[in-house]
Design goal:
The chain is of the alpha+beta class and about 220 residues long. It has a single domain, classed as Porin (Beta Barrel), CATH 2.40.160. Helix content is about 15%, strand content about 30%.
């Protein structure tokens, strides 16, 4: 069933450009059977965000790799990922659980495929990230795996991957859509990078919905 809101109902505010406050690199986050690791590289890159140029993507990936492996020459020890996403068994690869550095559950992702149902992100009771589940709806049945919408605290959001390799996250403010995030796949389509204005949306909600978008309704795990 299509989402009750449609982006055509909210003109795009072209005067507002994405100014990300957070940059994340998700290692192994697309069509994954094992664990995916999320590293926050905010403030660790020399290049400013520039709509995902090749050089920016390479630097983000290099920083994340250095965080994961450490750097003996500089005396840097490996860092734990900010979040880890695990799969609920090899036969249930569309059920994922996100945990923090302490191993505590942050949310569950039930990522559906084909057209059986909508994907849902569920949060533990008392979560600081969301007081209610987040359900992803197809905006257009013909582009169900590339254009999705969700509601958080009564505000509509739209993830749009119909324009190519970059996905755009828009938030409805004052009856207009404003860009608050961008995502793109990396490393032969295995990893992903997310640039987010964290003042406009919780990072866990953005990350989990981004993962759902890039894994796609029509994508079977390989």
């Amino acid at each position: 069933m299509p989402h009750p809101f449609h982006p055509d109902d909210f003109p795009l505010n072209e005067d507002i450009y994405l100014e990300p406050t957070k940059i994340f690199y998700v290692k192994g986050g697309i069509h994954f059977k094992g664990d995916a690791h999320i590293y926050e590289v905010t403030g660790k890159t020399r290049k400013p965000f520039d709509d995902f140029s090749s050089s920016f993507q390479k630097e983000v990936a290099k920083v994340a790799q250095r965080m994961a492996e450490g750097d003996e020459d500089k005396g840097q020890q490996p860092e734990s990922p900010k979040y880890t996403i695990t799969s609920s068994g090899s036969m249930m690869r569309t059920l994922k659980t996100m945990v923090d550095e302490k191993g505590e559950k942050v949310c569950d992702l039930n990522m559906t495929f084909v057209s059986f149902d909508n994907s849902v992100v569920r949060f533990p009771s008392g979560s600081k990230h969301s007081r209610h589940p987040i359900e992803m709806y197809p905006v257009d049945d013909k582009l169900a795996d590339k254009h999705e919408a969700f509601i958080k605290n009564s505000i509509p959001y739209f993830w749009d991957l119909t324009q190519g390799q970059i996905g755009y996250l828009n938030k409805c403010l004052n009856q207009k859509r404003c860009e608050i995030g961008q995502c793109t796949s990396y490393n032969m389509g295995k990893d992903l990078i997310l640039a987010l204005n964290g003042e406009e949306l919780d990072e866990v909600v953005a990350l989990s919905t981004c993962l759902i978008l890039l894994n796609g309704r029509n994508a079977m795990d390989h």
